[in-house]
Amino acid sequence: FGLPPEPHLSAAALARTGGALRQHAKTSLPPVESLEQVLHQHRDLLGLTTGSPRMATATRARELLTVLAAATDDLAAVQVLAAADVPAEPQALAKSISTASQVAAALKGGRWNVLAAVRAYEGGELVLADLADAANAEELHHPLGPALQDCGRRAEKIIIVPPPPPPPRTRRAVPSPSATTTPTPHGAPHGKTRGKTDAPHRAAC
């Protein structure tokens, strides 16, 4: 819980520790409850079960904080913590509690419609598998917020395929004058040939 250690066992030390535990539990309980709820809400796309490490830790954190917040005095709070079912890796429990607010906010802002739709596209199952790997791991080992953002971007790229580029514009060839004008012999009238002009004169002779 990040509380400073007490150098001496005394009534004053007990009061400080117990009071700090109760206050910390009351402050941390709402975001931890929110985290557990949103994990449960999106458990299908996240690939979570009740036995998943992240889900189990969130549930354990909520149960512990609920009992601590309800402790009637400082001694009771210390006794609750001493008897708590702390996991073999207590750092994972502490990390889940301390980051509950940020992780819950990231989950609430996830691209869930896109992630739900990408399953039907080629490559979508791989995106969801990577998301499930991060979701099942403890926050201590695999932060979920960045993984959720990355998978959301990848899903959007798969679904929103950019349109093909337009075909290149081709320039129409302009015919040259030489290709459309009939050559005229030198000295002959336009549109007539020299042979046709001289034919009557030779016949008269």
Structure description:
With 205 residues, this protein is an all-alpha fold. The chain has helices at 11-41, 43-46, 53-69, 74-82, 90-98, 100-108, 112-117, 124-136, 144-159, 194-204. Helix 1 crosses helix 3, helix 6 (100-108) runs parallel beside helix 9 and helix 8 (124-136) runs antiparallel to helix 9. The longest helix has 31 residues, at 11-41. The termini are far apart.
Q: What key attributes describe this structure?
A:
205 residues; mainly alpha; 10 helices; disordered C terminus
- For this structure, the quaternary state is single chain
Structural class: mainly alpha
Mean pLDDT: 83
> Topology as H/E string?
HHHHHHHHHH
Question: What are the segments in which pLDDT stays under 50 over at least 5 consecutive residues?
Answer: 191-197, 199-205
Principal-axis shape: elongated
Characterize the largest beta sheet: strand count, sense, and whether it forms a barrel. Answer: none
How much is the radius of gyration in Å? 41 Å
User: What is the count of helical runs?
Assistant: 10
Cα end-to-end separation: 132 Å
Helix content: 55-70%
| Total beta strands | 0
Name the beta content range: under 5%
